[in-house]
Amino acid sequence: MKHAFQLLLIVSCLVIVNCAPVMPQRSKMGGAARWAYDHSQRSAILWAKDATLCRVVGVGVGSDGWLPDRGGSWIMTYWSREFEDVLEVSVDSDGNITTEKISESPYRGGVIPLDWKDSSTVWKATRTHQEGVPLNTFSSEMSILAAKETHPDQVVWRLRFFLTQGGFETHIVSPQGEWLASE
Nearest 5°: phi and psi at 69? Predict the structure, then answer.
């Protein structure tokens, strides 16, 4: 009877944990990719009226798709027909913005679909396909070149998680949040 109760308690805890919404490990507003995109728009439009988003990169992102309170940033890359350079707009976890013009970018001409889902939705799409337990996101990129070997000419998210037990796990997800593959 004691073992049955313990088993029921463990199963109940697992159900609660797996059904609970994923809440960011943040005590301040913002931190997801769409939040950073919204912050980057002004800089992009001031640079070029036809600025077009062609790449999103997350640096220091948590395993839930959010930036932690301290550290990390989202980098939005834009191109324009007016300029040969691309503009990288970096938004840190406090909402501070820095910009840098990059020449000869392979992302120039790419287009991120307007209906791309936020990072928390995209990261959530990997959960049922994860073999390990992610500690954090080692690298993340959405672009036409993110997974050019396995998904050529297709805009996708490539998420590489660092696992608690060591090692890495990589997932490919569509911009609309549909899980496509593991690498």
Answer: -55, -40
CA angle 19, 113, 175 (to 5 degrees): 30
8 CB burial (10 A radius; 0-12, 13-18, 19+): exposed
Question: What residues form DSSP beta bridges with 139?
Answer: 160
Instruction: Please report where in the chains the tokens 């919204």 appear, as a residue.
Output: 38
Q: Give the predicted TM-score (pTM) of the model.
A: 0.84
Question: What is the rounded CA–CA span in Å between residue 112 and residue 36?
Answer: 15
Please state, in angstroms and as integers, the Cα–Cα distance from residue 64 to each residue in 33, 59, 85, 126, 161, following that order.
11, 13, 32, 10, 10
Asked whether the beta carbons of 65 and 118 are under 8 A apart, the reply is yes
Percentage of the chain with pLDDT > 90?
Answer: 81
Upper half-sphere CA count for residue 67 (Cβ side, 13 Å): 26
Phi–psi pair at 58, nearest 5 degrees: -105, 130
The backbone region for 49, taken as left when phi is positive above 0, alpha when psi lies in -120 to 50, beta otherwise, is alpha
Lookup: tokens for 110: 């790419």
Q: Whose CA is closest to 98, among 43, 136, 49?
A: 43
